[in-house]
Amino acid sequence: DQQVKQNSPSLSVQEGRISILNCDYTNSMFDYFLWYKKYPAEGPTFLISISSIKDKNEDGRFTVFLNKSAKHLSLHIVPSQPGDSAVYFCAASVGGNTPLVFGKGTRLSVIA
Amino acid sequence: ETGVTQSPTHLIKTRGQQVTLRCSSQSGHNTVSWYQQALGQGPQFIFQYYREEENGRGNFPPRFSGLQFPNYSSELNVNALELDDSALYLCASSLAGGLNNEQFFGPGTRLTVL
Description:
The complex is a heterodimer. Chain A is built from no helices and 11 strands. In chain A, the strands form 2 sheets. In chain A, strands 2, 4, 5, 9, 10 and 11 form a 6-stranded mixed sheet that branches. Chain A is an all-beta fold. Chain B is mainly beta. Chain B is 0% helix and 50% strand. Chain B has strands at residues 5-7, 10-13, 19-24, 31-37, 44-50, 53-57, 64-68, 74-78, 87-94, 104-105, 109-113. In chain B, strands 2, 4, 5, 6, 9, 10 and 11 form a 7-stranded mixed sheet that branches. In chain B, a hairpin with a 6-residue loop joins β4 (31-37) and β5. In chain B, 37% of the residues are buried. At the A-B interface, β4, β5, β9 and β10 of A face β4, β5, β9 and β10 of B.
């Protein structure tokens, strides 16, 4: 039973446009959500996070939105750059210092 | 600030053998978590160590075991290797008691079981 789902395996976006990556979860106990970016032959790199007490968190070109009632979060990248091409993982946890539950990832390709 | 390091980078073993993977946590971090990432999947939680004690375990059999040392580095041991153990093994370090649950990952060890 997958508790964190990323239903789009891949996404292609033109350079300069907005990239929107989506993530759904089923466990209502999740209270902290994170996005990681992964390049080939590297470990996941932390990108941005959001606590369940917020509905939006922004960091430069990256914004994460959380809709608790829909159990849905999204990552917006504006403007998209070719260097953003990577696999993006959504992860969730219950409380601090607890295991992260990951989705299967979405491969983003930003085309110049 | 030193990031998370893992060794070896790649490893090839045969079925039935045993393997030990190593991880050095990020400076200042006291918790280490291990994840297995199979091809096309997201990382799956194996177990976590905090203050040299196992602090949670995922759905992995007992032949997956670990250790954490006083300097917070860690080992993952897998006995009686099976073909399905072929995967990328990721170590992540974090600071218990922090306000968030950000875990910082190493580059991983690619294990191939033949």
